[in-house]
Each structure stands twice: as structure tokens, then as C-alpha cells.
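Private note to self, pasted from the team thread so I don't lose it. C-alpha cells:
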């Protein structure tokens, strides 16, 4: 993917990965306009973290996140329950974005069909925006539900949905919203936008639709740098037969360390486009 003629991201549609990592298409590397990488792929601390993409740890009991499954009253457990996301086709493919069709497949067969729309847009000479929309449709003919380790009994672990594994550096990045600062204050809370600031880069994540803004943020900085949305923070998210879940996250990718005012201004510009 390119912005103003400069490469800012590489999208891998058919990764060759073991099933235990829940193979799925991903963006990596993603870079700032100056070329600083802001993603990681299969880091040693979590080999199933794959750049930028969509991952759900529990789709009717099937793991589309990778790694171990959190089992109530048992903890993280190695299970043979992994699914994979399979690229079907591109409806549109341009240097600055694409529209992709995917199938989410596990042991019973196809569970979900996804349409993924991704676009890259220049904001300033030092910042661009990644607009990422996904829609998940239940194609089984029976009710499905999406869950998380939190809904399975692990407090504070409501990950699942859009997820960005950020660059790990010698010091943990700062995290802040318009009203809060620090991992403890941001994690598990709703905010129109959330910023992650490293040594020479800043990522600002924003829910671009009302349903997306209702999802709390999943935030890690001390253990590893990562930000995602929480589709199932407290209760499982039901998806009836033929039903569709749609979310849209716009991420500002900026060189340098932004303050609150600059982060908010760039988010407004990115979301309004």
C-alpha cells in the first residue's frame, strides 16, 4: 500500500503459518511516512500476534486468535480448536487500498464470511490514516456467538476484533485518550480515540461508527505494545443466521510524538474523510 507514492504497508493474503497461530491475512510491516516500522509479526512474546488484522479468540468455541484458549476454571489451555481466515478474492485492489472477501473456516466448515475494506489516506507531510472496516456474516444457518477470555472467566482480557500489534522498543510506549493517561486508565474503557506514542512515532486509534465507539479498548503497554477493540467485553456477542457484525477503526500513523491536541485534530481530519 502506498501514500503519496511512498510505501506504508504490505498486505499478506495467504500466509504460510501453522494452524496453532490461526492463520489469517495481515498487514505487516506498516510504517510511518518517514519509514519507521510500527508493527510486529510473530514476536517471541506472542507468536500469534500478526501485525494489523482481525482476530477473535472464540467463535462458537473455535479459536481465530491463535495460541492457547482460555477455559473457564482451567486457564489458558492448548486445544485443537483453531480456525483460519482464508482469502477468497479482491473486489477492488488499488495502490491505496482494497476490498477483500474472506471465509472464516474451522472444523465444522465455514462459520463466517467477511468483507474487509482497507484504505490509506495522506493527512499531512508526516501523518497518514489507515481506514479499516470489517463485516462478519454468519453463514451457518444456526445462531453463533463471539466471545473472549473475559466472557470465559478471565477478567480484563476482553480482546477480540480489530487488533494492532505495535513495535516493541526498549521502553514501553505512552498511552492516552482525551481524558485519561496510562494503561490502567485506558484499558477496558470507552473513548472516541486512543493514542499510543513510541520514541519516534504515534498511533491514534478511533472508532469511526457508533457501534465501534461502544466497544471498549483493549490496551497493553507494559507487557507488550498492542491496541484492539473488544467485541465481547462482558457478554458474548450473538450473531443470528444471516446476521452481520460491522466495525470500522481509523488509525492515524504519525511520525514523532503527538500531544493530545494534535492527536485529536488528526483524528477529526481522518474520520471526516
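Design output:
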Amino acid at each position: 500500500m502506498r501514500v503519496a507514492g511512498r510505501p506504508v504497508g504490505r498486505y499478506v493474503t495467504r500466509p504460510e503459518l501453522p494452524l496453532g497461530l490461526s492463520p489469517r491475512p495481515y498487514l505487516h510491516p506498516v510504517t510511518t511516512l518517514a519509514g519507521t516500522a510500527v508493527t510486529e509479526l510473530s514476536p517471541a512474546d506472542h507468536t500469534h500476534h500478526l501485525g494489523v488484522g482481525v482476530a477473535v479468540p472464540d467463535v462458537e468455541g473455535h479459536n481465530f486468535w491463535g495460541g492457547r484458549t482460555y477455559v473457564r476454571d482451567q486457564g489458558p489451555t492448548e486445544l485443537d480448536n483453531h480456525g483460519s481466515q482464508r482469502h477468497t478474492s479482491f473486489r477492488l485492489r488499488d495502490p491505496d487500498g482494497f476490498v477483500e472477501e474472506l471465509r472464516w473456516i474451522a472444523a465444522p466448515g465455514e462459520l463466517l464470511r467477511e468483507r474487509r475494506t482497507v484504505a490509506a489516506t495522506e493527512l499531512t507531510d508526516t501523518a497518514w490514516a489507515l481506514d479499516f472496516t470489517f463485516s462478519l456474516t454468519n453463514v451457518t444457518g444456526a445462531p453463533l456467538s463471539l466471545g473472549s477470555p473475559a466472557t470465559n472467566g478471565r477478567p480484563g482480557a476482553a480482546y477480540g476484533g480489530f487488533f494492532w500489534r505495535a513495535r516493541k522498543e526498549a521502553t514501553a510506549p505512552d498511552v492516552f485518550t482525551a481524558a485519561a493517561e496510562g494503561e490502567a486508565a485506558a484499558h477496558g474503557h470507552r473513548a472516541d480515540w486512543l493514542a499510543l506514542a513510541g520514541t519516534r512515532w504515534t498511533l491514534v486509534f478511533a472508532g469511526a461508527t457508533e457501534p465501534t465507539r461502544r466497544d471498549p479498548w483493549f490496551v497493553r503497554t507494559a507487557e507488550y505494545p498492542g491496541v484492539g477493540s473488544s467485541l465481547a467485553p462482558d457478554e458474548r456477542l450473538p450473531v443470528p443466521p444471516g446476521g452481520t457484525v460491522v466495525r470500522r477503526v481509523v488509525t492515524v500513523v504519525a511520525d514523532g510524538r503527538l500531544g493530545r491536541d494534535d492527536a485529536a485534530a488528526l483524528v477529526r481530519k481522518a474520520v471526516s474523510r
